[in-house]
From TrEMBL:
CDD domains on file: PHD_PHF2_like (cd15554)
Segments forming domain JmjC: 197-353
The protein's name in its UniProt record: Lysine-specific demethylase PHF2
InterPro entries the record matches: JHD, JHDM1_Histone_Demethylase, JmjC_dom, Zinc_finger_PHD-type_CS, Znf_FYVE_PHD, Znf_PHD, Znf_PHD-finger, Znf_RING/FYVE/PHD
Organism from which the protein derives: Cottoperca gobio (Frogmouth)
Record's function text: Lysine demethylase that demethylates both histones and non-histone proteins. Mediates demethylation of dimethylated 'Lys-9' of histone H3 (H3K9me2). Recruited to trimethylated 'Lys-4' of histone H3 (H3K4me3) at rDNA promoters and promotes expression of rDNA.
């Protein structure tokens, strides 16, 4: 009777259902489970020696690994590339060195992380909080473990489980995964990263950080009675075993994310979301063999951050990150989109749409959230403008980005693709128009403030900043109203953008006519000067004001004499002058560069300026640079005096 051949150290016959590997020394076959060789790792082995042959022939050798360098092309046909997440990959990853994340991390206490802090400095770099005190978050006690998760969520709840070695996912009941977690012989490395429990009983014992609840669009702007479902992204439970690995990714919708390690430890590999890195990421992710290329080798810097038990990490929008679990770990996390990173969120969302990547942590109805935020910003801007206040600059910028996305989503060729996420009872065209109007008002007000530094418009909740006190303006430097108006008429500068219309003021009463003043002593001249209101801004008033300025620099007697001559004009002369001025204003509108003034006086007009005398019976020209205008921009005004 023929005997059945036996193999392996267990000396059992061949079983077609079990993986076996041949020793290159003794040529015997061994079960992978008996010699601790995984079927997925077998292609990476170049020469295999069984435990018995290792004593004489040495340990097994592996094939040369490819694609660890960004210069590798991965086109070799005789050597298989290393699969991201495999045991060989994890071993190599542990042995590598990376720049410390201390170069980019911001370390704060819990009570320092406030909305005012982020509004002032932005949320562009990861934030590490050593202790949860001051964060306003609720977590279970440190004795809480995996079996408690099963009790609070339910044993029959289905979860998505990732096979780390193959980087594939499958469905499993939570009870089955808990049994695997507590087993002593884990044949595979399985990972649960998307157990969202906001509708489960565990929601009552876990609360996200206070700063997240303050910023989150979903928490603040999504109506409770909305027909479209609210995105369930706020509370995740992560159950990861040793050597779990999540490859490089950007959170869906460009969301920011927070992590808190309750038990164990996690290692984050962080890459800045620069334009170059985002382009490289999109090219890498769209490649068919991206799971065999380590993305960190294609960028300049990848930072390593170790998150230990009890610590909390906040990762901003757009940061490309991968996660390694060196020991069994239980952690909590959540995703949130907000007003501080609208531009990066939109850019990440567009990349996500182009790649069409299926993910286990999607941000469903992201566009719907944007529509609700757009409506909120419109109401907010209107309220601020009514109160004569201006929105913060980051809100104006974010509103422009969102309104631009609205226009793109509502185009005829794109409407069919995006109309499913349009909220009910929403009028998109009217919202786009009204929001654009409020944005223009805010931008015009901002430009007016920049062009006129003396104007101060209140801004909504300005962050506390320390600035040096401004020096008080001397009254001598404040221009008189008549001079300022005359200067504007003469120079005709380009009009600044109109600021928001102020409330209408009651019309000022007409000034009384200038009474005749007899030439006399200084007291009479002073009284007449004080009692008479400033003349109507005109060409003559501008000339008079300029003459007063020059005469003030001369001797006191000469000044008195000039003032007397000016004040000796009769009412009849003033009325004639006004008629002439109206004609001159019409002439100025036709020719902006040159102003002609005509004056018919019954008496000789004596003006002494810069040592020159002008008499009414002679034709004279006076070149005058308008006040507060630089010499190269000043317009020369021509004064023509004719004989009586």
């Amino acid at each position: 009777m023929a005997t059945v051949p036996v193999y392996c150290i267990c000396r059992l016959p061949y079983d077609v259902t079990q993986f076996m590997i041949e020793c290159d020394a003794c040529k015997d076959w061994f079960h992978g489970s008996c010699v601790e060789v995984d079927e997925d790792d077998a292609p990476d082995i170049d020469i295999y020696h069984c435990p018995n042959c290792e004593k004489n022939h040495g340990k097994s050798t592996l094939k040369k690994k490819k694609n660890w360098s960004k210069h590798d092309t991965g086109q070799s046909t005789d050597i298989k590339a290393v699969q991201n997440g495999s045991q060989v990959f994890i071993k190599e990853l542990r042995s590598r060195t990376f720049p410390s994340a201390d170069d980019v991390l911001v370390k704060l206490n819990g009570n320092q992380l406030t909305v005012d802090y982020l509004e002032e400095g932005g949320f562009n770099e990861p934030i590490l909080v050593q202790k949860k005190d001051g964060l306003g978050m609720s977590l279970p006690a440190p004795t809480f473990y995996i079996s408690d998760v099963e009790n609070y969520v339910g044993p029959d709840v289905g979860v998505d489980v990732i096979d780390v070695t193959k980087q594939t996912d499958s469905k499993m009941k939570l009870k089955e995964f808990v049994d695997y977690y507590y087993s002593t012989n884990r044949k595979k490395v399985l990972n649960v990263i998307n157990l969202e429990f906001s509708d489960a009983r565990m929601n009552t014992i876990v609360e996200s950080p206070h700063i997240v609840r303050r910023l989150s669009w979903v928490e603040n702007y999504w109506p409770d009675d909305a027909l479209l479902g609210k995105p369930k992204v706020t509370k995740y439970c992560l159950i990861c075993v040793k050597d779990s690995y999540t490859d490089f990714h950007i959170e869906c919708g460009g969301a920011s994310v927070w992590y808190h390690v309750l038990k164990g430890e996690k290692i984050f590999f962080l890459i800045k979301p620069t334009s170059a890195n985002l382009s490289l990421y999109e090219r890498w992710r769209s490649s068919s063999n991206h799971s065999q290329m380590f993305f960190a080798d294609q960028v300049d810097k990848c930072y390593k951050c170790t998150l230990k038990q009890g610590q909390t990490l906040f990762i901003p929008s757009g940061w490309i990150n991968a996660i390694l679990t060196p020991v069994d770990c239980l952690a909590f996390s959540g995703h949130f989109v907000h007003n501080l990173s609208v531009e990066m969120q939109m850019r990440a969302y567009e990349i996500e749409k182009r790649l069409k990547v299926k993910t286990l942590t999607p941000f469903s109805n992201f566009e719907t959230a944007c529509w609700y935020v757009g409506r909120h910003l419109l109401e907010r801007f209107k309220g601020l403008h009514k109160a004569n206040k201006q929105p913060a600059p980051y809100l104006i910028h974010g509103a422009k980005i969102i309104n631009g996305a609205f226009r793109a989503w509502t185009k005829k060729q794109a409407l069919l693709e995006h109309e499913d996420e349009l909220p009910e009872n929403m009028k998109p065209s009217q919202l786009i128009k009204d929001l654009a109007k409020e944005i223009r008002l805010s931008e015009n007000a901002t430009k007016a403030i920049k062009s006129e530094p003396s104007i101060k418009v209140p801004v909504e909740e300005p962050p506390s900043t320390h600035s040096e006190p401004e020096e008080p303006v001397s009254p001598a430097h404040v221009p008189s109203p008549s001079r300022e108006k005359a200067r504007k008429k003469a120079s005709k500068p380009p009009k600044p953008p109109k600021p928001p219309k102020p409330p209408k003021m009651p019309k000022a009463p007409k000034p009384p006519k200038v009474p005749k003043v007899k030439e006399g002593g200084k007291k009479k001249a002073k009284k007449a000067k004080e009692s008479s209101p400033p003349p109507k801004p005109s060409s003559f008033a501008a000339l008079e004001s300029h003459a007063k300025d020059i005469l003030s620099k001369m001797d006191q007697p000469k000044k008195t004499k000039a003032v007397k001559n000016v004040l000796s004009i009769s009412e009849k002369e003033m009325s004639k002058q006004n008629n002439v001025e109206k004609f001159e204003i019409r002439e100025q509108n036709k020719n902006k560069t040159e102003a002609k003034w005509k004056y018919k006086g019954e008496q000789k007009c004596h003006l002494k300026t810069a040592g020159l005398w002008f008499h009414g019976k002679f034709h004279a020209k006076l070149l005058w640079n308008a006040p507060r205008i630089s010499s190269h921009k000043a317009k020369h005004l021509q004064l023509e005096q004719r004989p009586c």
